[in-house]
Every structure is written in structure tokens, then in C-alpha cells.
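Researcher: Here's a chain I'd like modeled. Treat it as a single chain, no partners, no ligands.
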Amino acid sequence: MSTTMTVANYCLIAACLLPVVSAAIAKSRGFGKRRREGGFDNHDPRGWLSRQSGWQARANAAQANGFEALPLFIAGVLAAQQMQHDQSRIDLLAMSFIAARVVFIVLYLADRPSLRSLAWTAGTAISIALFFV
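Model: Modeled as a single isolated chain. C-alpha cells:
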């Protein structure tokens, strides 16, 4: 078994960072403002985020969904590698998952629910496909 990082392993890191990016987008409008002026409240970040609307609320929802999508994707990559499936196929599927999740975030921010659901379905299908490469 190889001990080098694969493209799929880098995709695991990227998948873990995508919710953090969504959170930063959700909080971005409040950065640099004082709390009393509606700025981001680091004393109560979840409460502050729950009071946001529009694209900020959607970015926060994308963050939550990103964390929800992680377990199946991580398990799929690790299972595929543990079963020693073709690494190039695992890498391709992992990159496809990252692409689907980026599209998902963009569509969530743009308030395109039907297309967003298609991107979510693609990401979930890719995660499942990793078990059967």
C-alpha cells in the first residue's frame, strides 16, 4: 500500500474546507462592523448567523449541508482506497465530488433551488459510487 498523498486525499481536505468557505461567505458582510451596527458577533456566532437572511442565510445553510455531506464522501474515498480500487478512478470521482459541491454552493448563493438539488444529487451519487468503483 502506498504512503503518498493521492488526488483523492487532497480532495478530502478540500471537502472539509468547503463548509468553512461557506461560513466565511455567510459572515463576510458583518466583518469590519461593530456588533451594535449589525456586524458579526463572535460572542454569539450561531445566533448571529441564525438572524441573517438572503444570501447570507443561504451561505450558512450551504455550510451546514457541506458538513452533512462529508461523512459519506470520506467513507467512500477511504473504502475505495482500502479495497484497492483503481486510484485514477477514485481520484476522478473525488474531483467530481468537489466540483459538484462547488457548483452546489454557487447555486445555493444564487438562490437556484432546483439546480442546487441536482448538484446535491450528483454529489451524493458520486459519494455512493466510490463504494463500487
